[in-house]
Amino acid sequence: MNPQQLFEKSKKYMWLPFTQMTDYERDPLIIESGDGVRLKDIYGNEYLDGNSSLWLNVHGHRKKEINDAIIKQLDTIAHSTLLGAANVPSILLAEKLIEIAPEPLSRVFYSDSGAESVEIAVKMAYQYWQNKGIKGKTKFVTLSNGYHGDTVGTMSIGSIEIYHKVYTSLLFDALVVPFPSVYHHESSDEQVVCQEGLQLLRDLFEEHHEEIAGMSVESMMQGAGGMNIMPKGYLKGVEALCREFDILLIVDEVATGFGRTGKMFAVEHEDVHPDIMTMAKGITGGYLPVAATLTTEKVYEAFYGEYEEMKTFFHGHSYTGNQLGCAAALANLEIFKNEKLVEQASQKAEYVKELLQEVKDLEHVGDIRQLGLMCGIELVKDCQTKEPFPWELRVGYQSTLKMRELGMITRPLGDVVVFMPPLAATFEELKDMVEILKQGIIWATTEYTK
Ligand code: PLP
């Protein structure tokens, strides 16, 4: 089938996620293959993958060890889910995940996507208190601009404005505290912003702790809500407040886990120990849909005992604990160990930081927020006043379209351009990517300020 026919069929039959289909029809992209950090479309154009697909292709594409592990597993069994039964790769993977996760996490519950892993965390935290007979603790606290997924439960405990606008009466209420964003605060003193943020949380907990089951936070850095970094000490402070007020701490490592921020998990930056932690994306190196919700023995024990219907945890899907996915994840973790990928990622992050200095100096770059290889570049009309571009200009989107034309794929979040290269990108590839990033930003900010 030729490219034009494929495009026509895609227009006729498909509906793409988070996409205005008119944008797709105007600027179509159909990926055919991938190799290392490069993607190729059906016309033969090559692109550097500056977004690790959707923040998950840690090693890029066609990593031999993962391909081999999947093929080997195919020869044994591809999939079986039997309620009340485990399978071999999922057991071996659970052990490895507990080895690398922060203490005292000790139990693994599998699922198929990041959103589901958080949905599970919410249901577990809710039911934990119910099982203990503390019936009033039913609410969740979240940070402004928090993103935990797009299912009804995760939209409810997240605070992405557009979701709440569109799906208003479908969602349940969460208690929202402001995210302590240094760039968007009138004080540029990190400690001031941190202390103010923690005081607001303390005030909320003092008033409502008897109703609060859990608090959910993205780990150290928010992703989809604008690539915002917590000030130093904030997450540790959140942990202390959760302990003081007997509230379960749910940390979402879906985007930040598996080396993305220069540590295996971002909680390690502040030695934080969640009650529940979620992971997905990089868990299989970006190959197959596996996610996991890890809990402590304290949480697990509230569900454990002789058969008692009310204590069963009511969750599980057709593909939960899929053998192919777990085999891919095991191979992925082996590569992390053999290639010392986390240490490498942290060295590469330093290099990217140096490269981004030149981008920082551009006229319309208001802020660059980077933790490891997770970067967001905020474009503004006026750097002095931080005045944004009129949203209808879609300057972020236009800059990423230009980047695509120049040979790199990445993604805008409004006027924040995301840069999340595969951890396996070489220094040279990173240099090429940052150059395209810069050119795309220069082009769009010049074009739209004429
Ligand atoms: N949590 C966070 C922090 C995320 O960034 C995402 C996705 O970007 C999710 C949850 C949802 O993950 P998924 O897209 O796999 O459902």
Automatic annotation (TrEMBL):
Q: In which pathway does it act?
A: Cofactor biosynthesis; biotin biosynthesis; 7,8-diaminononanoate from 8-amino-7-oxononanoate (SAM route): step 1/1
Q: Which residues carry this modification: N6-(pyridoxal phosphate)lysine?
A: K281
Q: What does this protein do?
A: Catalyzes the transfer of the alpha-amino group from S-adenosyl-L-methionine (SAM) to 7-keto-8-aminopelargonic acid (KAPA) to form 7,8-diaminopelargonic acid (DAPA). It is the only aminotransferase known to utilize SAM as an amino donor.
Subcellular localization: Cytoplasm
Tell me which cofactor or cofactors this protein depends on: pyridoxal 5'-phosphate
For binding pyridoxal 5'-phosphate, which residues are annotated in this chain's numbering? G114, A115, D252, H317, S318
**GO BP terms, alphabetized:** biotin biosynthetic process
Q: Which family does it belong to?
A: Belongs to the class-III pyridoxal-phosphate-dependent aminotransferase family. BioA subfamily.
Identify the residue position(s) of the site Participates in the substrate recognition with KAPA and in a stacking interaction with the adenine ring of SAM: F18
Per the UniProt record, the source organism is Oikeobacillus pervagus
Q: Which residues cross the membrane?
A: none
Q: What is its EC number?
A: 2.6.1.62
Which residues does the annotation say bind substrate?
Y147, K281, G316, R411
Which reaction(s) does its UniProt entry say it catalyses? (8S)-8-amino-7-oxononanoate + S-adenosyl-L-methionine = S-adenosyl-4-methylsulfanyl-2-oxobutanoate + (7R,8S)-7,8-diammoniononanoate
GO MF annotation: an example: pyridoxal phosphate binding
- What protein name does the entry list? Adenosylmethionine-8-amino-7-oxononanoate aminotransferase
